[in-house]
Amino acid sequence: MANDMQSIKRRIKSVESTKKITKAMQLVATSKLRKARNQMDELRPYYSKIQETVGQILESNKGMVESPYLVENQAGKHIYIIVTSSLGLCGGYNANVFKTMVECLKPDDEIYMIGSKGASYLAHHHIDYHSQYVELNSTLDFKDVIRLVHELTKRYQNQEIASIQMIYTKFVNNLTFQPCVMDLLPVHTQDFENMTLTKKATLFEPSPEAVLNDLIPMYLQSVIYGYLVESVTSENASRRTSMENATDNAEDLIEELLLKYNQARQSAITNEISEIVAGANA
Question: Which residues are bridge partners to 185 per DSSP?
Fold first, then answer.
């Protein structure tokens, strides 16, 4: 019985140590989540305004604007930019991205992977990918996003790329986040049909085509960076939820172990009293 009590005490100490770790990670994830949400909210007006401007040009010059970014190159490859995490303990965040990725990818598609967890997954399955932007979700360096967009748009203009899509995790709220597949290039004019656009006459110099060709790379930079920050926000929200659940489970387990310990101690005391009474009667 004493051995059982000592074993239970060791388990209680072990669970309490685990609880301290999960609680600390929960607090860290909460702090990172707050910072990422603030950054996401600050970015939205910027890329929303660029999106509105692109929509304004396409809507006011419908059928008259020609741009290589509006046409799919039939001979090129399909490109996927995929955002995963570089750290673990974030619940089903990566698993959901991998599931969406498997559903979308075809053997000839190219992958630009962001996040070391996704890179490890592809390496394990012997799938080739571009690795130069793997750490982008950790650095969130806008210069790297500019470099990525410059590389992709140049290849698109050379007709090496048929389309560009991005798989990221959409942040709905602190408890809800879902993987999404977004079309980046070619830019589809129907995506802007439901937008509220100004009815004022707009003059574009030197031409709508020239403005659009300069504006679309800026649009891609802002949208890719916005989706990247949204994925990082979702990752931290998922990790915070996972660590909160782990902390709650640890508390429940400690209560169960304490109950078992008290029962074992009470049983030991009862046995000792019984032995003393039996000795006295003898």
Answer: 164
Q: What average pLDDT score do residues 254-263 get?
A: 89
Residues 130, 92: Cα–Cα separation, whole Å: 24
| Nearest-angstrom CA–CA distance, 278 and 282 | 6
- What count of other Cβ atoms lies within 10 Å of the Cβ of residue 267? 13
Give the tokens for residue 54.
Answer: 């692109």
Closest among 253, 228, 245 to 25, alpha carbons compared = 245
Of 3-12, 94-103, 196-205, 267-276, where does mean pLDDT reach its minimum?
196-205
**What is each CA distance from 141 to 15, 118, 155, in whole angstroms?**
39, 19, 22
Burial class (CB in 10 A: 0-12, 13-18, 19+), 30: middle
- How far apart are the C-alpha atoms of 135 and 279, rounded to whole Å? 73
Residues in the chain: 282
Q: Following DSSP, what letter does each residue of 203-244 receive, concatenated?
A: --SS-HHHHHHHHHHHHHHHHHHHHHHHHHHHHHHHHHHHHH
- Residue 178 host element (H or E): strand 176-185
How far apart are alpha carbons 205 and 224 in whole angstroms?
27
- Residue 83, beta-bridge partner list: 114
203-257: per-residue pLDDT in tens?
Answer: 767 777 788 888 889 889 989 999 999 999 999 999 999 999 999 999 999 999 9
Where do the domains of the chain lie, and which CATH numbers do they carry?
23-241 (3.40.1380.10)
Which of 233, 39, 54, 225 has its CA nearest to residue 146? 225
Q: How far is CA 215 from CA 179, 192, 252, in A?
A: 27, 15, 55
pLDDT by residue (tens digit) across 129-152?
999 999 999 999 999 999 999 999
Q: Compute the distance between CA of residue 108 and CA of residue 90 in angstroms, rounded to an integer.
A: 30
Among all chains, which residue has been given the structure tokens 């702090």? 31
